[in-house]
Amino acid sequence: MKKIKILVSSLLILSIFAGVGCSSKTDKVNNKPKEKTNLVWAGWSGEEEANKETIKEIIDIYNNSTDMSEISWVGWPWANTLQQLIIRTQSNQDLDVAQVDMAWLATLAKMDVLVDLNEILGEDWMKQNLSDASLNSGNIDGKQLAVPWTQASIGMVYNPTILKNAGVDKVPQTVEEFEAALKKIKEYDKDIIPYAAATKEAGSIAKDVNAWFWTFGGQYIDDDGKVVINSEANEKALTWYKGLKDKGYIAMDLTRFDARQLFAQNKVAFYDDAILARGIAKSNGVSEDKLDETIKPMERPVLKAGDKPQSTLWGHQLVIFKSAKDKEKAGDFIKYLISEETSLKYFEASGSVPVMKSAINSEKVKNDNWSSEWLKITETGKKAETQKFENDSQLATIITEEIQNTLLGAKTPKKALEDAQMRLEQNIN
């Protein structure tokens, strides 16, 4: 009996030591530090001299503050970025998060390479922190394929000194007031272009005229994807626009670049541009102390008092690719990029307006008169209607050609719209 007790005790001791040994081995595995997931963020802003250091700093802060992931930047010039993103997706190269131009989203959506961010960032979180207008610009067929990183509108700017000298005592708010102001400016100085509308390149013309068609109650393409450019409202808008050219208020063969140059030389009273217009005016020679008397933002004139001012949205968006190594961690990085703290840092360095509601309502943004005015312009902004389609450039070119035909007198507004209707229907996809 005594021998049996000794044997049982010995077995019990051995089992305890064995258990301790197994426990130690398991603890050793669990205590091993997890490796960070390497994620690639691609785009173009980190390649621009003005933003390079800021982008690097933003990435470094994130990498040093989390054990989750390590972000690496891969970039190209803006003009090459879409092509490079497509190449990387097709060749299975690392690609997790990307900065994209709003105009590229339809192309990437058609390729079915983007994640629905409702599933990653959360629909409730996005609605709580981002405006409906900014979310709508990244929504295709009910899927939130992109969120804004910075967003504003193609609005209008004016030269307050020219207006004052020409006897225009207030910024025009209606189409009628706008045309009256153009008339006074033309009479004041025939060498000044009253309204330097872009009349040469498709990228600008189609978007700017889209906003004027909205002003008159028309559209190019409706929300269901039906071509509706040949309408009574658009005929009225295009007839009015042609009238501006006939009266010498706008000029042919002008690009946005030309308008910017001439504006800085006090040769233009009004033109269409993005929020970057003030910085561009400065780089084109307007001294810091002359900026306020040279350039001011304004809402696009409305057809009748009480209408909503129209503008086409402009901005940079963030997307996550289906090939991402860890979509949740990629989503965490996007939340960091658009967070109040990070976006205000980027705002101070680049002038790019934040998109988070808390950042927009911060004192830094509110106290910046230029940005505050532009955010007001953006409130009712909409995505250009051709940008809903992957062949955006082709559709914009068709519209541009027909508008130019009207301005040059080759076609009546009605005929140009009929031809645009037919050509868009043949090419839309």
Structure description:
It holds the Pfam family SBP_bac_8. This is Sugar ABC transporter periplasmic protein. InterPro entries: Bact_solute-bd_prot1, SBP. Residues 1-18 form the signal peptide. The chain is α/β, with parallel strands linked by helices. The chain has two domains: 37-152 and 314-378, Periplasmic binding protein-like II (D-Maltodextrin-Binding Protein, domain 2); 154-312 and 384-427, D-Maltodextrin-Binding Protein, domain 2, CATH 3.40.190. The chain has 20 helices and ten strands. Strands 1, 2, 3, 6, 7, 8, 9 and 10 form an eight-stranded mixed β-sheet that branches. The protein is globular, with a radius of gyration of 28 Å. The termini are far apart. The model is unreliable at 1-33 (pLDDT under 50).
Structural features:
globular, alpha/beta, 2 domains, SBP, D-Maltodextrin-Binding Protein, domain 2, single chain, signal, 8-stranded mixed beta sheet, disordered N terminus, 429 residues, two-stranded antiparallel ribbon
State the gist of this model:
The protein is an alpha/beta fold. It contains 20 helices and 10 strands. The protein has helices at residues 2-30, 49-65, 78-90, 105-111, 118-129, 132-136, 160-165, 175-188, 202-215, 232-246, 256-264, 277-283, 291-294, 327-338, 340-350, 357-360, 363-366, 369-378, 392-407, 413-427; strands spanning 37-43, 69-75, 97-101, 139-140, 143-144, 147-158, 193-195, 268-273, 296-298, 312-320.
Q: Given this structure, which CATH class of the largest domain is correct?
A: Alpha Beta
Number of domains: 2
> Overall 3D geometry?
globular
Relative helix content: 40-55%
Q: What's the main sheet like?
A: 8 strands, mixed
CATH architecture of the largest domain: 3-Layer(aba) Sandwich
Strand content: 5-15%
Radius of gyration, rounded?
Answer: 28 Å
The arrangement of helices and strands along the chain is HEHEHEHHHEEEHHEHHHEHHEEHHHHHHH
Q: Look at the structure and name the CATH superfamily of the largest domain.
A: Periplasmic binding protein-like II
Structural class by sheet pairing and helices: alpha/beta
Ends distance: 91 Å
CATH topology type of the largest domain: D-Maltodextrin-Binding Protein, domain 2
Oligomer: single chain
pLDDT average, as an integer? 91
**Which stretches are low in confidence, meaning pLDDT under 50 for 5 or more residues running?**
1-33
**Total of helices:** 20
The count of β-strands is 10
